[in-house]
Specification:
- By secondary structure, the chain is mainly beta.
- The protein contains 1 helix and 35 strands.
- The protein folds into 4 domains: 93 residues, Immunoglobulin-like (Sandwich), CATH 2.60.40; 119 residues, Immunoglobulin-like (Sandwich), CATH 2.60.40.10; 89 residues, Immunoglobulins (Immunoglobulin-like), CATH 2.60.40.10; 87 residues, Immunoglobulin-like (Sandwich).
- The radius of gyration is 52 Å and the shape is rod-shaped.
């Protein structure tokens, strides 16, 4: 009998041990009537970010359940680590949500026994492109040159809370010109850049957005990839625009002298610069190519400016003038001038009388009329009998001369002008015996 009782006692102990082990394997769940509230520090997250999810469980009496109450999490996007966790003494449990590079709206739920967040208590976090709140677009420089320029287009992307949003795709489109890249991901600062090359005004639009379908995920994995039913779709697109203007170039006009310029003589030309009326910039420089191998910088000006130039030879020459503003816009205009040979002075010599006897005296009146811009370097007279007199640079002078030998005397006045030309004026005197 003692042996039997001992055996019964041992069997009882074994049953008790089995019961204890079985109790340890059954998870502790929230009682019926309990509630679960999910919170997160943000409702927007980059596709490469992470955030903490906190579940708070309270029983119907408003007290936390027993410590170690088991909670299971699900998400329609990304993953939750761990997907199952136990509460602390306050009925709280914290897990980590990671989007895994996806974009869209993550719908996160939690459940424990008879307690669940349900669809109305689910936590929603906008991720990646779905989290965009605003796209700010700027162009530099703006305006660009009318001759064709390149502007850097910068899109600054921020999320629903005004924080920078990295690792999202920005789609660029332009109404004119050509883009360097049409799809660029934002960097760590939430910035995406491309370039626009254009000679026309263009509007550049930067768009960030997703159109995705969300579904209720399965419990247990926390990856959002388990079997479920479609609960709805989300579509979030936010755009920003900037208009890249084209600056107009200033204009320039050349007015040559009213009479043809002469070789070797200065002539005056007028250059008229008019600033652009639309998107114009200040004039930086005006330059002129005279067409004879000479070029000149006229500086910066608007309005009219006179400039003189001397052509060393005659012929036709094309003058070109270019005006450039500080934005790099330029305009060039051309005109042709015909340079004529240098006109010669008019030389007149009058003898009084023109017939004289031997040893008679003749008076000579000499008039030199040089053209405008021409001076007289030297004037001389040859009386025709071997005698020559230097008159200096005289242009109006009277001289007398006595002839001692009869005959026909050819009198010549020679003028050397400042253009290096020699011009003569003549008359004759008859000397009789």
């Amino acid at each position: 009998m003692v042996t039997r009782c001992r055996r019964l006692s041992l069997a009882g102990v074994a049953l008790l041990l089995l019961a204890a082990v079985a109790c340890e394997k059954v998870p502790l769940l929230a009682p019926s009537g309990s509630s679960i509230v999910l919170t997160a520090p943000t409702n927007a997250l980059s596709a490469s970010g992470t955030t903490t999810i906190v579940a708070q469980i309270l029983e119907s009496a408003g007290t936390p359940p027993h410590s170690g109450t088991h909670v299971t999490f699900t998400t329609t996007l990304g993953r939750i680590e761990p997907s199952e966790a136990a509460t602390d003494a306050n009925g709280r449990v914290s897990v980590t949500f990671t989007p895994n590079g996806a974009s869209g709206t993550a719908i996160i739920t939690a459940g424990s026994g008879g307690a669940t967040t349900g669809s109305t208590g689910a936590l929603r976090i906008a991720v990646g492109s779905a989290a965009v709140g605003r796209v700010i677009v700027v162009a530099t420089p703006n305006p660009v040159s009318a001759n064709g320029g390149v502007a850097t287009i910068t899109a600054n992307v921020v999320d629903l809370n005004g924080n920078t949003l990295p690792s999202v795709g920005v789609s660029f489109a332009a109404s004119a010109g050509s883009l360097g890249s049409s799809l660029v991901n934002t960097d760590a600062a939430g910035v995406a850049q491309t370039t626009l090359t254009t000679s026309m005004q263009a509007t550049v639009t930067a768009t960030v957005g997703v159109s995705s379908t969300s579904s209720s995920g399965s419990t247990g994995t926390g990856t959002g990839t388990g079997a479920g039913t479609t609960t709805g779709s989300t579509s979030t697109q936010v755009s920003g625009t900037v208009t890249v203007n084209v600056s107009a170039a200033p204009s320039i006009l050349i007015t040559p002298p009213s009479t043809p310029p002469s070789k070797g003589l200065p002539a005056t030309y007028a250059f008229v610069v008019t600033a652009a009326t639309a998107n114009g910039s200040a004039v930086r420089n005006v330059s002129v190519d005279w067409g004879d191998g000479m070029a000149q910088d006229l500086g910066s000006f608007t309005g009219s400016q006179a400039q003189t130039h001397v052509y060393a030879r005659d012929g036709s020459f094309q003058i070109s003038a270019t005006v450039t503003d500080i934005s790099g816009n330029s305009n060039t205009t051309r005109t042709t001038v015909t340079v004529i040979p240098v006109p010669r002075p008019t030389v007149t010599v009058t003898a009084t009388p023109q017939t004289v006897v031997v040893n008679g005296t003749v008076t000579f009146n000499i008039q030199v009329l040089p053209p405008t811009g021409i001076g007289v370097q030297k004037t001389s007279i040859s009386y025709g009998d071997g005698v020559t007199e230097d008159l200096g640079g005289a242009t109006s002078v009277t001289r007398t001369h006595q002839y001692t030998v009869s005959g026909q005397k050819a009198v010549t006045v020679t003028v050397l002008d400042t253009a290096g030309q020699t011009t003569e004026g003549t008359t004759s005197v008859s000397v009789t015996p």
